[in-house]
Specification:
Elements (H helix, E strand, L loop, with lengths): L2 H16 L5 H4 L8 H13 L3 H9 L9 H17 L5 H14 L13 H13 L14 E5 L3 E2 L4 H5 L3 H14 L4 E3 L2 H10 L10 H10 L4 E9 L5 E9 L4 E10 L3 H15 L6 H9 L5 H15 L3 H14 L4 H15 L1
Parallel strand pairs: 1-3, 1-4, 2-4
Antiparallel strand pairs: 4-5, 5-6
């Protein structure tokens, strides 16, 4: 990735994190002071170049400014925490200290965690949010927007397919999350936030999570609809994927879609997203349909490698996670999700 491309990506990330509006009278938000977003984007670029100390110095120099808002300060700590974490295991506690400062300023000041944080920082942030009873923030979801939570898929396959498809269940949930997040009028609860709550209340031990338990977790996270999926494969030629939408308030199944045929799970997933959206009365305009068509990958090999990357990401094994995301991208260089994850974990895999 070129310096210019990384800088553009970083600037876009910072803008999304802080939520700066174009002008107070246009969005009700106060614009960031001139240059803050640009300087933080440069700090993230330095992270990509493994220049962690330079990035920290650049980000923290912003605290000398007298015109910083609460959002600005939280964003500076967010970038500094990531850069400090990148320096190595002996700096993890210090990186957590910056999260504590952010939580003290206000856990709901900006929408966090964002994707560029490594998984361990994200989980630590969820812990801090839980302590402050802020896993969901007030008025986080505008009126009329449906909040959806997607559970990891169940694997009802038999024999060798039970083991072979173990990683795929995680990847399918991630693909559904990415696709639903592209639909306007929907807010998707982060997959790892769901996992965090399940682990914290000891509901996700080795076995499968009961639907009733998952619905209770959905309520805790402010979800209105829970998505459950399963896949079943009995031989090399026949497979089935079933996806259900459950209304959290009543626990009733409000929509159900399924596909049967050759074991092309990620092809099935793409078709089922559109079918489920239709059954939930969610209109997909041309722009959204184009975004959905462009997302993911048509390569089963790439999807499988990406799913393994997610597994190691959740285990904080960033070197293996990066390797699998890189392999997935090499299989399909149009696979944007794999490229994005690859860019996030490359500095941690090589530092």
């Amino acid at each position: 990735m070129t310096l210019r491309t990384r800088g553009a990506m970083a600037a876009a990330v910072i803008g999304l994190i802080i939520g700066w509006g174009p002008a107070p009278n246009a969005s009700g938000q106060t614009p960031s002071p001139s240059g803050v977003a640009e300087q933080l984007s440069q700090a993230i670029t330095l992270y990509s170049d493994l220049e962690f100390d330079k990035g920290i110095e650049l980000a923290q120099s912003l605290f000398k400014r007298p015109d910083l808002s609460q959002k600005d300060s939280v964003a500076i700590y967010a970038v500094t925490s990531m850069l400090t974490y990148g320096k190595g295991e002996q700096y993890i506690t210090k990186s957590y200290d910056y999260l504590e400062k952010m939580a003290a300023l206000g856990p709901c000041a900006i929408h966090l965690p964002y994707e560029f944080w490594p998984q361990q920082l994200r989980d630590r942030w969820f812990k801090l949010m839980q302590v402050k009873n802020s896993l969901t923030c007030p008025e986080e979801t505008p009126g009329g927007v449906k909040t959806i939570a997607i559970m990891e898929f169940d694997n009802y396959s038999v024999g060798k397919y039970q083991q072979e498809l173990g990683f795929v269940t995680k990847g399918l949930a991630d693909f559904f999350e990415n696709d639903f997040a592209k639909i306007s009028g929907l807010k998707v609860v982060e997959r790892d936030k769901i996992d965090f709550v399940l682990k914290e209340i000891e509901m996700s031990q080795a076995g499968k999570v009961e639907a009733s338990t998952a619905v209770r977790v959905g309520k805790l996270l402010g979800a209105q609809i829970m998505i459950f999926g399963s896949l079943t494969q009995l031989d090399d030629k026949n497979a089935k994927m079933l996806v259900k939408a459950v209304k959290v308030e009543t626990s009733e199944i409000i929509a159900s879609v399924e596909k049967e045929g050759k074991p092309d799970y990620f092809g099935m997933q793409k078709a089922l997203v559109a079918e489920l959206a239709e059954k939930l009365d969610i209109v997909l305009d041309k722009k959204t349909k184009a975004l959905l068509d462009e997302s993911g990958t048509e390569s089963a090999d790439a999807a499988g490698l990406y799913s393994k990357g997610l597994y190691y990401m959740d285990q904080y094994d960033y070197k293996k996670a990066y390797e699998y995301f890189k392999l997935a991208y090499e299989k399909d260089n149009t696979f944007a999700e794999a490229k994005r994850k690859m860019d996030i974990y490359r500095p941690l895999a090589t530092s």
